[in-house]
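Notes from the pairing session

We agreed to fold both candidates in a single pass and log them together. This is the raw record for the first candidate, unedited. Please don't reformat it; downstream parsing expects exactly this layout.

Candidate A
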Amino acid sequence: MSEFYIVSARHTRRDAPYISFWGPNDCGYRWPLSWAGKYSREQVESHLGYYNNGESTFAVPCAVVDAMGVAPMPRTVDNDAGPVVPNTAENRQALIDASSFPTGKPIEFEWFSRKKGRLGCDIYNCVGCGRFVSDAQRFSGDCANCGTDNRP
């Protein structure tokens, strides 16, 4: 029986040191693989739109992910639990390449969630707090809620 980790592309932030994975029983997000959930092929295939939608989640075989695991840097994870997968461009691409199921959309780790607003303008999520900011607000200054600079 094949087992898979569910990668959370949405919850892997730009400044995060490690890639986020779903916890066991669809519960929360984890950096350490020892805390991540393992999902059976049957479970993933029965709900592909949930576990493998390509926009925010995708399934990768445990063997592939386990081979990428390293010990975490001291004091970045509770009790230095590991292994973890470093959040690098090479690791993100390797996970995308190893994805085992087809997705409706190309898999991307996006730093801003692009959505079309009511008037057709682009709307983004603030990197710091996740609130919506318009394209104009991105360039005019920092987020009014948290003060994060969202300029590209």
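Candidate B (folded immediately after A)
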Amino acid sequence: MRSRRLLLASDPAFAQTPRPTRTIQDLYAQCTSGNPLDGLLCMNYLQGVAETMQLNSVVILNLAKTERLEARISPLIDCSPGGVTGGATVQIFINWAAQHPEEWSEPKAVGALQAFHEGWSCPR
């Protein structure tokens, strides 16, 4: 284990301290930087959002049986086609963010949710 840490620390791409990402613009810059560590952090974040949407689908839809409540929570629900890879989540976000620079000051989670809903053609 220690040798793996030393190996990673010796690689300049992994020796950098990642800068915090808070906005859509920050996340877009991280996802498109070409730095392997940034790419890994980007993919892990977006996969986390996608998996949270999947969990919300199971839990919330089982609890919320009324249309009124479902309409209010639909942006949090997963409608992915299934089997979506980490690379696919990154590409969906990059494509969406590049088309919506007016949204770049919004929180990154908002951008990820919007990107997935548009990329997966989720119902509103």
